[in-house]
């Protein structure tokens, strides 16, 4: 009887494991097919946008996100160059993950004893924004890498960058280049000047913080540095 009971438990555990594996594979298939759809269809929202809107509704029930999609050609090259210079200098060359940048970030964070540098590429940031949450865990990071390579499989760099520019967070409830240009400078994404673009690029790691602290000394200092780097940024 005891042997039969143990066998039943083993069978149940095996079935549960198989169901879990099947669920994970189905989730990956969903991600893969959804990204394929977005090759020539624009996302109307992302997981991160929905999460932020839910947070805003906790204090302002009728809150709305500032978001307007604009085509790649209608976004200033100044902004494109500034973001590449600030966030991912090797964007046009790597396959989605810049392993050298990750190693450098790890070494710098270890030396400082805290996270001071991320090392994530534009494609990785987009993967997180499209499907995942902002939580930090090895499981989420692993899923982010899988989605990153799916994006690189389906899309060319220009399409990846176009989606990124339109869905990245730029302030409290502010998403995308057009909304950011209007929010901070009362202009369109196509008319952003070099200094305006550099400033927006520097805000990306902590957009809500810089939305509230626009006079930050670091923001001004870093903006000057990115302005000097923009000329060498390679666009996809």
Briefly, what is this?
Keywords: Cell inner membrane, Cell membrane, Cell shape, Cell wall biogenesis/degradation, Glycosyltransferase, Membrane, Peptidoglycan synthesis, Transferase, Transmembrane, Transmembrane helix. This protein has 236 residues and is an all-alpha fold. The protein has 11 helices and 3 strands.
Observed structural traits:
three-stranded mixed sheet, Lysozyme-like_dom_sf, Biosynthetic peptidoglycan transglycosylase, Penicillin binding protein transpeptidase fold, peptidoglycan glycosyltransferase activity, cell shape, 64% helix, globular
Walk me through the topology.
Layout (H helix, E strand, L loop, with lengths): L1 H36 L9 H13 L6 E2 L9 H11 L11 H14 L9 H10 L6 H17 L2 H11 L1 E3 L2 E2 L1 H9 L8 H10 L3 H6 L4 H13 L7
